[in-house]
Amino acid sequence: AKGEGKGRSQFFHAQMDIDYHYRQRLKTDLRDAVAADALTLVFQPLLDIDSRRVVSCEALARWTHPELGAIAPTTFIPLAEEMGIISQITDFVVRSAVAQCSQWSGDIGVAVNVSARDFRGLDLPSLVDRALREADLAPSRLELEVTETAVIEERELAQSVLQSLSARGISIALDDFGTGYSSLSYLSALPFSKLKIDRSFVQDIAGDERALSLLANVARLGRDLDLTVVAEGVETEEQLNAMLEHTGIQQVQGYLFSRPLPARDIAELIGRLNG
Ligand code: C2E
Ligand code: CA
Ligand code: CA
Ligand code: CA
């Protein structure tokens, strides 16, 4: 048993070494990729639940490592935050997303994810002003998504930055709602116009009455606050039907409608669904 224990701990050390070296390598390569403008964007549509028309698209960052292949944003975004280079990524995402949006037919909007670090690391209002001016896009077409965790980590700064963005006509969405803190007091203090309910609330609603009732109640909370309520992660017709019948959810996003797509394909999808 002793020998086994020793072997296992050696294994753990070896594993930690691999993790450590892997992370170091990713960090070095991510720094280079960001400097070389090698990240790309994909877009996923948000649809109006009744008309099934695309109302906006969320921009999501992608990194394809030359040797390791696709690295998930849930891996490289936290690394970028840790390294202090997330602002460069946000700057790139805002400018490219706004430029793409100006190519789309109709008045379809674009949503960009903002990190807690961006409140300190960036002058978001001027970045946004510049991007909108360069693309000649109305502020009402841009939406910024922030998480509960981000606004609570940077409460006062977040409040003033979000107020100034909102005063320009940019909408602010609260992302991943329900996964963060349980205090809801910040909800009325910040200028949100949209609530995106995390997909963990959607997952089990087909065939689980308690899950459906929970989702319906979260949606009602959003409606009572005059927010547009979005369900994330809709994957099946059953989930969609349950939502249509039992919740006041207004917009939906998920693999049922479309995976995130490169710019060229999303423009075609918009044409097909809204044309
Ligand atoms: P998020 O902001 O909640 O984005 C939605 C995520 O859910 C995306 O994952 C999307 O591909 C995925 N998704 C959409 N529909 C479905 C579905 O029906 N089922 C399932 N299982 N998943 C679905 P992705 O692109 O891997 O991004 C993960 C997270 O990484 C994002 O979560 C966001 O927090 C972060 N992220 C991505 N791009 C950016 C960015 O440009 N800036 C920042 N700060 N964060 C980003
Ligand atoms: Ca988001
Ligand atoms: Ca989300
Ligand atoms: Ca998320």
UniProtKB/TrEMBL annotation:
Q: What is this protein called?
A: EAL domain-containing protein
Q: Which residues form the EAL domain?
A: 23-274
